[in-house]
């Protein structure tokens, strides 16, 4: 993986342009539509995080009526794609558009070859702006164009709808936890879910197998020889803090322990309650679910929460953002989801 510095473009007027500025213009919806014609932009996507394409989950309407969804990679010069090593990097296989300030290749305008044999359309901005960096910056200064289909509507109403979407996501996790327990037993299911949650919550940390084993052992020691019984006992408090503190086990931070609780503990306890018709446990879990704290905003939820103009107060609402992202944003569903203009109120009838 090649680490990209922040390239700078110096045109005839000696104006300096940073690659991030071109990315910002795209995400703000300020790149002139004629640049991508005959495609039409449905959604500019969201900013990429870490290694990989600059923009994720953009969506375009093709002249045939087909919706094309994928990533957008941004460079100052078209040749940077090869120079940065992306042409042989599998992380860029889902790029559908290569947005550049200028196409400096001999065969300017041809698609960019991707790893795996695919191609990405390449479009250049400079010629439409007369090569003016100042004009591009003037477009950026205008701010968001406000054309995102989900940018309207009542934020409080959006939060309520996000809560319902979050319930659907939790129900899916609960079903999978129950299926795992039916196949391997409850203790093994707990161990599998906990380890998966540790891997998923590591973020950009580079945890070795040994380091993860230490965390698993510490949590196991904190919960004792009967972890499910102990978790069910902790759930009786109906206080997320009690469960989160137990999961910290003196080795985890609060936010990561909270993520483990949501991803592993709550689905498994909900599945356990359903399997044994334990009404009291079901009520305890429901109380925890409704008050479980929301995590701090992060990459996958930032763009959608900004478009909806919401700040989740509970984990259920954050889960709703993720569920919407998975069902609609990542599947070319921009403009059709329950939050889009003209689709409000349809969330209950959609699959």
Average pLDDT, all residues: 88
Write the H/E string, N to C: EEHEEEEHEEEHHHHHHHHHH
Q: Cα distance, first to last residue?
A: 38 Å
Which class of secondary structure composition applies to the elements?
Answer: alpha+beta
Q: What portion of residues belong to β-strands?
A: 5-15%
Brief characterization of the structure:
By secondary structure, the protein is of the alpha+beta class. It has helices spanning about 20-25, 80-85, 135-140, 155-185, 185-200, 210-225, 225-235, 240-250, 255-275, 280-290, 300-310, 315-325, and strands spanning about 10, 15-20, 40-45, 45, 55-60, 65-75, 95-100, 110-115, 120-125.
Q: Can you characterise this structure?
A:
This protein has 2 domains: 8-141, no CATH class; 150-351, no CATH class. The protein contains 12 helices and 9 strands. The two termini are 38 Å apart. A hairpin with a 5-residue loop joins strand 1 and strand 2 (16-18). The strands form 2 sheets. Strands 3, 4, 5, 6, 7, 8 and 9 form a 7-stranded mixed β-sheet that branches. The protein has a two-stranded antiparallel ribbon with strand order 1-2. Helix 4 crosses helix 5 (186-201). The longest helix is centred in the middle third of the chain and has 30 residues, at 155-184. With 351 residues, the chain is an alpha+beta fold. The radius of gyration is 23 Å and the shape is elongated.
């Amino acid at each position: 993986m090649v680490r990209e510095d922040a390239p700078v473009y110096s045109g005839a007027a000696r104006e300096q342009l940073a690659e991030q500025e071109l990315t910002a213009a795209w995400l703000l919806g300020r790149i002139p539509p004629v640049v991508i014609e005959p495609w039409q932009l449905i959604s500019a996507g969201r900013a990429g995080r870490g290694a990989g394409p600059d923009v994720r989950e953009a969506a375009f309407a093709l002249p045939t009526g087909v919706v094309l969804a994928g990533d957008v990679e941004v460079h100052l010069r078209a040749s940077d794609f090869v120079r940065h090593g992306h042409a042989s990097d599998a992380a860029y296989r889902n790029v559908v558009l290569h947005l550049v300030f200028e196409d400096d290749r001999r065969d300017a305008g041809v698609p960019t070859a991707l790893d795996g044999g695919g191609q990405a359309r390449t479009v250049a901005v400079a010629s439409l702006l007369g090569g003016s960096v100042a004009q591009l910056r003037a477009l950026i200064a205008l701010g968001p164009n406000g054309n995102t289909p989900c940018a309207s509507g009542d934020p409080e109403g959006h939060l309520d709808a996000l809560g319902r979407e979050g319930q659907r996501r939790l129900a899916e996790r609960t079903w999978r936890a129950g299926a795992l327990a039916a196949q391997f037993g409850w203790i093994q299911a707990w161990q599998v879910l906990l380890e998966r949650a540790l891997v998923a919550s590591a973020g950009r940390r580079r945890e070795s197998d040994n380091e993860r084993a230490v965390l698993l052992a510490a949590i196991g020691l904190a919960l004792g020889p009967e972890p499910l019984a102990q978790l069910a006992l902790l759930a009786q408090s109906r206080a997320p803090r009690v469960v989160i503190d137990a999961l910290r086990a003196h080795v985890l931070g609060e936010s990561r322990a909270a993520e483990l609780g949501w991803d592993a503990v709550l689905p498994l306890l909900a599945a356990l309650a359903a399997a044994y018709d334990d009404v009291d446990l079901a009520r305890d879990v429901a109380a925890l679910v409704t008050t479980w704290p929301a995590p701090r905003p992060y990459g996958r939820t930032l763009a959608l929460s900004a478009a909806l103009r919401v700040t989740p107060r509970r984990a259920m609402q954050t889960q709703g953002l993720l569920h919407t992202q998975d069902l609609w944003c990542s599947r070319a569903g921009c403009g059709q989801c329950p939050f889009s203009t003209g689709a409000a109120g349809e969330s209950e009838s959609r699959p």
